[in-house]
Amino acid sequence: MAVLGSLVVGLPLLEGREFTSTDGKKIEANVLKVTPEAVVLERGGSNFTVPLDRLSKADLAFLKKWAEEEKKNRVPKVEIKVNSNKRDRREQNAYEDRKGEFKFEIFIENEERGFNIEKATGTLIVLGKYLYERDEGIVMEWKEFKNITVLEGESVTLEGSLVKFEYDKDGYTHGQKYDGYLFVFKTAGGKVIKTVGSTSRVEGSAPLILKLRNENRFDEKTYVKIGSGDTRR
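^ thats the sequence. predicted structure below, dont judge the formating
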């Protein structure tokens, strides 16, 4: 393999794998990309492509496993748009209650060239104000989406559940009021691809919010769980 022979001389070794060509020449390099026909290697700041049929069987087995892990853990470029479809109206009664509902739609577009997103997961957490108690919030919806596949250049739409709520914050304070959302999109290997929230504070508090579950009540300042369930229903 001419490319291996020409690069072995005069270049310092990097941390990587030692590859062996079918004619016995060796080189230590890092893997950048694997295609069905070739592998792109990096050594000393230079990238070069080697046909797979010029590598040893051991190298081919290594590259197959590397490609599987890379596909599972690669963090692709995505565009995510979230629509709450929230509706809120005032009830004409003595208490002047407000009633509302929402059903989230999450649009995910795969912007990565030559890469299909497979077996990804998404977690939607809808946050509300628990008006019976000051500075308390409540999880109005917690939903996990599994095995999400988004092909190259295509998009998918995820749908939450229809959630109805009722509140009054002016007279007899009661009920739950919608207050925002968090959506976290992860690879099959569990790496975060993108975090989208109603505010930058929500996005920055994602690790804490992800510990909450449906109908958990929490401190609005710290997002630490206080209790479970709406005790005033």
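Residues 126 and 140 are 5 Å apart (CA to CA).
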